[in-house]
Amino acid sequence: MIVYDKLYIGGRWTDPTDPQLLDIRSPHDRSLLGRAAQATTADVDKAVAAAREAFDHGPWSRTTPEERQAFVVRLNELRAGRAKEISARISAETGAALWFAEWGQPALDKQADAYLRAARSFGWEEPLDPTGASGSLVRREPIGVVAAVIPWNSPYMAALVKMIPALLAGNTVVLKASPENSLSIMLLAEIFDELGLPEGVVSILPADRATSEHLVSHPDVDKIAFTGSTAAGRRIASIAGEQLKRVSLELGGKSASIICEDADLTAMADGLKFASFANNSQNCQAHTRILAPRSRYDEVVGVLKDLVESLTVGDPTDPDTFIGPMTSEVQQQRVLDYIRIGIDEGARVVTGGPGSPEGLEGGNYVRPTLFADVDNGMRIAREEIFGPVIVVIPYEDEEDAVRIANDSAYGLGGGVWSTDPERALALARRVRTGFFMVNAAPVGFDGPFGGYKASGIGREMGAFGLAEFVELKTINV
Which of 250, 384, 460, 468 does the annotation list as catalytic? Predict the structure, then answer.
């Protein structure tokens, strides 16, 4: 059993204010995985004070960009060296299939490399007029103390997509993780401890929501970087607005996938297997609204039925498993409640439905569920479920498809499926989301990632994400 009885505050392993440890249980069978200390508001105060001191008086904010880049290169090497251990802990805590957790580790390499490429060519200080006619300079400087707050569904991706650009820019960071990730996130603290940053630069704290609010409200925090629910994002935005803090928010989604009349449905099913169901569909950009032309509606539903029924549900350590358990009993109940809501709304269960799969009643499992005969006004089509539930909505023509896709409070992800690339691209340009896939094109890490509307504020990845962690200064000479 894994036990963490200390917190990582300002680069030191520190006794928590509250010595009582939280039990971390397996979502697969609810057995005890380990125990870990949880931060209180007093621990947050210590972490912020250390970060403030390190930024205002320590060496970190005055290091060169090249020195900071060397630390990030080493950080990525240390993390990659423990990739198997990290994957196993993430899978055990979140219920993600082990193959998915392992697949995510090379993606973290690519994410870090994209940030490093951006940092090496970033205009940290450059003339305002490249011709030299003006002596004015533009500087990009660190903001200060960054509060990074992350959810439980993809802890390393969510943490490092914020911590790496914040550190590259010269900020200090207090990372607040969900209690569900206590064992995996404290492994990240071990990695930072080995990295040997100056004192105070990084703190890593698992804690509950109330402690999160104390962190983001703290007067010595200069910037909030948050990933999580739209409801929590609204609260954080209100706090940031009151205090005029810098803020970036990566929030929820209800992504639409438009199936064109000429789509290759075999390719569609292969792509949606991952776009809709990877990470147990506990994924903010999951394609959960499938828009099908009426002329091929029954055909699309039939192909998706075969897809959903082909997904192996079970122990996340089994290499044949595609869908594991929901991370918590609370999340399991939320998904089951939405399945019942869909039935009550009059949607047709094509496959799946209420309850747990046979033989898996002892864990946080749900049946992957496909609904047909869905109207875009139904709650199952409008609200983020965050579990393996997808709906098929009919459309009349492409104008109607775009209208339905855009008829959402969210605007994070989406996709289109067509054998005509120009047709697909034309549709992609009209859907109001921050991230869009044409025929499941490979994902890059240099482009911006983030959402329109209730899906967030700001962008992550590459130079766009790095820019979220700097202040701009003009020096007139």
Answer: 250
Q: Where in the chain is the domain with CATH 3.40.605.10?
A: 2-251+455-475
Residue closest to 391 by CA, chosen among 456, 301, 277 = 301
Burial class (CB in 10 A: 0-12, 13-18, 19+), 239: middle
Choice among 260, 284, 384, 460 that is catalytic: 284
284 is catalytic: yes
Coil/strand/helix, residue 473:
strand
The one-digit pLDDT tens for each residue of the chain (477 residues) are 899 999 999 999 999 999 999 999 999 999 999 999 999 999 999 999 999 999 999 999 899 999 999 999 999 999 999 999 999 999 999 999 999 999 999 999 999 999 999 999 999 999 988 776 677 899 999 999 999 999 999 999 999 999 999 999 999 999 999 999 999 999 999 999 999 999 999 999 999 999 999 999 999 999 999 999 999 999 999 999 999 999 999 999 999 999 999 999 999 999 999 999 999 999 999 999 999 999 999 999 999 999 999 999 999 999 999 999 999 999 999 999 999 999 999 999 999 999 999 999 999 999 999 999 999 999 999 999 999 999 999 999 999 999 999 999 999 999 999 999 999 999 999 999 999 999 999 889 999 999 999 999 999 999 999 999 999 999 998
260 included as an active-site residue: no
Q: Is the pTM of this model over 0.90?
A: yes
Classify domain 2-251+455-475 at the CATH superfamily level. Aldehyde Dehydrogenase; Chain A, domain 1 (3.40.605.10)
Number of H helices, E strands in the chain: 15, 23
| Residue 4 and residue 34 in contact, taking contact as beta carbons nearer than 8 Å | yes
Contact residues for 95 (Cβ-Cβ < 8 A; gap 6+): 27, 28, 280, 316, 324, 325, 326, 327, 363, 364
- CATH-assigned architecture of domain 255-444: 3-Layer(aba) Sandwich (3.40)
What is residue 375's DSSP assignment?
A: -
